[in-house]
Design goal:
This protein is α/β, with parallel strands linked by helices. The chain contains 10 helices and 14 strands. The strands form 3 sheets. It has a 6-stranded mixed β-sheet, sandwiched between helices. It binds adenosine-5'-triphosphate.
Length: 309
């Protein structure tokens, strides 16, 4: 594994006394897409801001492709592209000038062909001569992404990139993210949209109250924590779950016509076969059945709830 980003024992206590990060350890591989999930105020932006040199850590170290973000700030920062949560783009400049200027800030030689490609990828090329102030909010957000990419970063941070953007931009963005990843760029995104993490991430980190609760391969996480639910629609309503079925984790709906059964997909035995035969022995006829996999959203909600004091 080649490490793109290494975070060790990172903590941050703001001047107000609030501890936003508590001893975070995290290794991010080159070329992976990591989604950081967490409720409001979890510390996601603080983490990104420290890595980008915008906030000073209280303890700990961060290295970007081997460069320490404090001792070797310029080298480390040059490898990073940041698309912040807030829109702040120069109003009077044109799209082209703004994006070109961003590249220049990192001391990189002009590369008009590259800037053109970035603008085309973001469906911004037709707007290249327009002033930013004349653009819609969605277009401004595209400009922010273009600015972050102009100096060819190896690690791209997207802080809640799709909050309030339309479906079109979201799709463009994920296409671009996948293409960047194919060229070896490491992508770290924070999001409230769990389906976004589910769709795009290779690994998912869950952060809450400044603590990294887990970091796990997405597929593995879903396999480990994912439970399936079996829904059984009954031919005849029942008043209560028969005593003979008390060993199973069953729930009966209000109408008495639907039983639900939670089971672990990773378990050796799901218990479905014995459950069905026990139902039959109890004289309960099943009209229809259906299974449903828990989504990452369910997993996230249950994790955050479980850990709550
Ligand atoms: N400059 C600051 N001074 C004091 N406290 C701060 C500062 N910036 C952030 N905080 C606090 O630190 C905690 C973590 O905030 P942060 O913005 O990192 O969370 P987040 O996970 O990005 O949240 P959101 O999803 O709402 O953006 C919050 O309680 C916040 O109020």
């Amino acid at each position: 594994m080649t490490t793109a980003l290494s975070i060790k024992d990172l903590s941050k206590t703001y001047d107000t006394g609030l501890t936003a990060l508590k001893s975070v350890d995290l290794e991010i591989r080159r070329g992976e897409i990591l989604a950081l999930l967490g409720p409001n105020g979890a510390g996601k932006t603080t983490l990104i801001s420290i890595i980008c040199g915008l906030v000073k850590p209280s303890t700990g170290t961060v290295t970007v492709e081997g460069h320490d973000i404090v001792a070797d700030f310029r080298q480390a920062r040059q490898l990073i592209g940041l698309v912040p949560q807030e829109l702040h783009v120069e109003s009077f400049e044109t799209v082209w000038d703004t994006v070109t200027y961003s590249r220049g800030l990192f001391g990189k030689k002009p590369a008009p062909a590259l800037i053109e490609q970035i603008l085309r990828d973001l469906s911004l090329f037709e707007k290249k001569d327009e002033r930013i102030m004349a653009l819609s909010g969605g277009m401004k957000r595209r400009v922010m992404i273009a600015k972050a990419l102009a100096h060819e970063p190896r690690i791209l941070f997207l802080d809640e990139p799709t909050a309030g953007v339309d479906v079109e931009l979201r799709k463009d963005m994920w296409r671009l993210v996948n293409r960047l990843r194919d060229t070896g760029v490491t992508i770290i995104l924070t999001t409230h949209y769990i389906e976004e993490a589910e769709e795009i991430a290779d690994r998912v980190g869950v952060i809450r109250k400044g603590e990294l609760l887990l970091v796990e391969d997405k597929v593995e996480l879903m396999r480990k924590l994912g439970q399936k639910q079996l829904t059984l629609d009954l031919q005849q309503p029942i008043d209560q779950i028969p005593e003979a079925l008390s060993d199973y984790e069953l729930a009966l709906d209000m109408a008495g016509t639907r039983l639900t059964y939670q089971y672990d997909t990773a378990a050796q035995r799901t218990g479905i076969a014995t459950l069905l035969s026990a139902l039959s022995s109890a004289g309960i006829t099943v009209k229809d059945l259906d299974t449903e996999q828990r989504s990452l959203e369910d997993i996230f909600v249950s994790l955050v709830e479980e850990e709550a004091p």
